Amino acid sequence: MPVAATPTLYQIEAQLRAALESPTPRHETHAALAPRPRSGWQAGFIPRGARTAAVLVLLFPARCHVHFVLTRRARTVGQHAGQVSLPGGALDEGESIESAAIREAREEIGLPGNGLRVLGRLSPLYIPVSNFALHPVVAVLDQHPVLVPAATEVARILEVQIRELQDPTSLKHGWRWRNEEKIAVPYFELQGERVWGATAMVLGEFLCLLQGNQTD
Predict the structure, then answer these.
(1) What's the whole-number mean pLDDT along residues 83-91?
(2) How many domains are there within the chain?
């Protein structure tokens, strides 16, 4: 049986551009990866008064495969300390979503200042615990960047092959306790780290686009 060829960065870029230009809602992919029960949240709904944040889904070639970046937050960083996330953060006053995602990635992982192509945005996602409306931005670099973690914010940078995310065995299900309530938690296991919550929900939509399957 022939082995399928590994898609190039340019093939993936073309596929994502086409998918991101589609007006088809993709919020159901968030629901599939959401911890349950999840009070104060429903797929596609963002309440008035939510603060705005942006994260970057950064794609680049390395070692003959396309990768994306995750970070494990330092233990000293606020509400989501120690969790695995996409680089990003809150918008500064007057800042666009794309500019904020790129600025935060420069601050957190030393993203190079040029050569970045923004492809578009994934669906916004509301995070009740922090009252943030999260806007994921997808972008590509033609070269493997040299990334350096900001010591006060990032404990580890993960360069993850897309095919690792596409591996069906990476999606697992576990349990967590929150306020004495047991919740079911879908998560991706990537490079020995558990990726759950909002980051898993964003990656679920991203994976849906990579597989050419848009859910309404």
Answers:
(1) 96
(2) 1
